[in-house]
Design brief:
19% of the residues lie in helices and 28% in strands. It is an alpha+beta fold. The chain folds into 3 domains: 31-82 and 278-332, no CATH class; 88-185; 188-276, Immunoglobulin-like. The protein has a 4-stranded antiparallel beta sheet, with no helix packed on it. Strands 10-16-12-13 form a 4-stranded antiparallel beta sheet, with no helix packed on it. Strand 5 and strand 6 form a beta hairpin. Helix 4 (62-78) crosses helix 5. The longest helix is centred in the C-terminal third of the chain and has 20 residues, at 279-298. The two termini are 40 Å apart.
Amino acid sequence: MSDVTPVTLSSGQFSPGSNTPTGTEFVTFVDNPYISVQYYLQSAEAKALGLNENSDVVTSGELVRIIKRQSAWINRYCQRWFDIQRVWETKTGFTVRPYNPQLITVRVDNGPPYNSINQCWIQVLQWFIPIITSGPNSYLQDFYDKGFYKIVPLLSSAGTGGGSPLPAAIVDRVPLGILWTDYTSGFGVNLTGYAMGTGDGTATSFQAAIGNQLWAPGNNLWGVSPNAMTPVNVYDNAVLVDPSLYTVDHMNGIITFNTAPLESHNISADFWTYETVYSEIKYACVLLTTAAFGTGAYNPLRHENLSVPGFSTSYDKEKLDAKVKEILEPFIAHRISIV
């Protein structure tokens, strides 16, 4: 019988059994959209296509699906994620030099930048040794904007000379160690008490203004309840509302109540927005979304040239791909693990 408390797995999670620092789920990055529907509809490209809120592609939900697919493509091409998320990752080849100590530099996969190193563990065989990551006794030096942190060389075989987070002799110049890092990365801002609007007694949905419509969905991190990192708290006249009384559309920053709030009641919310991602990422998503919609609507088989009686179209895929790749080139990850 396992003593691991069962949890509901969410997207981006898998269960490696009990051989983890805390014995619960491992969380990886997931794909989230980089533009909201309203953001796209305000673009020159969408206007050129004649799209608006009443277009079939919008009301059917197809535009949402297209945006998500193109955002995922950006992640794969750049080999990184730009929205704020909290994940775990492991690195091998971890060694120490107790008699000639040096700083150990660890570059996180998803950066720069990163926001915080939440937990660090060194695994040697089946044992896990925690590294203090915050406070006056921390063993870390953070270089947030550079995308790496350093573990200070307070490591000795006898545990002297300032203390030791692990029996260093075990991994003395021998790459037996596995480094586990729980960290938060990505562009995001935590907004509290954001004004969503005022009730009129009939309206049930309230939407944030353009610029704050992309809300980070919560991660069920390592057995913690959903939305532990990125909760959406909703208030009615400054009174916290039970989450069972509303639903949240994270992609478009919309709160929908089961019952309309009373007239003159002020509705506000706490949430993380990741609208602060690079503008180039958003623009690339707009271009890819436009191409996907345009070819899907008028040239579904992606022919380079298509002619039928009374209609012809030409699709220069290579030119578009080159443009998008040029935009994204500075953001491609070039990973170095441990040095």
